[in-house]
From TrEMBL:
This is Malignant T-cell-amplified sequence 1. Residues 53-132 form the PUA domain. Keywords: Cytoplasm. InterPro entries: MCT-1/Tma20, Pre-PUA, PUA, PUA-like_sf, Uncharacterised_CHP00451. One of its GO terms (biological process) is formation of translation preinitiation complex. The gene is MCTS1_2. The keyword Transit peptide does not apply.
Amino acid sequence: MSGPAAAADLAASFSKDHVQMFAVNGEVLFFQLRDGPWIPTLRTLHRFPTMMPLVRVDRGAIRFVLKGANIMTPGLTSPGGALPQHLEKDQIVAIIAEGKEHICAIGRTLQSADEMRSTNQGIAIENIHYLNDGLWKLTSRPL
């Protein structure tokens, strides 16, 4: 094999916390929690923002999301929030904040979009990776 792909340095990293990371040329692009799906890092999503469904939280949720809090349903169903029509439970989603340009977190839905709209209460999304968390800081430097 020749060309850029042949010259790329591919690496998989494993940790005692059941996190695996996939890196190319020292840059972590994807991670996996336990035996779950491979998930793009926020840095990867900033380059390719349409690779997964997007939800929007209202302004009031921003500071909590950026501290690692799970996303509550009212933050998605309020006038500043937004949900796609079809969203299943246990789906990985990108989270953007009202009035902001870039994705600020990645999460796993704990309810379907229909459930979120009908109940309008409880935790809607488990926050699994957010700006300035440990994975964000790790991906800012090569492995």
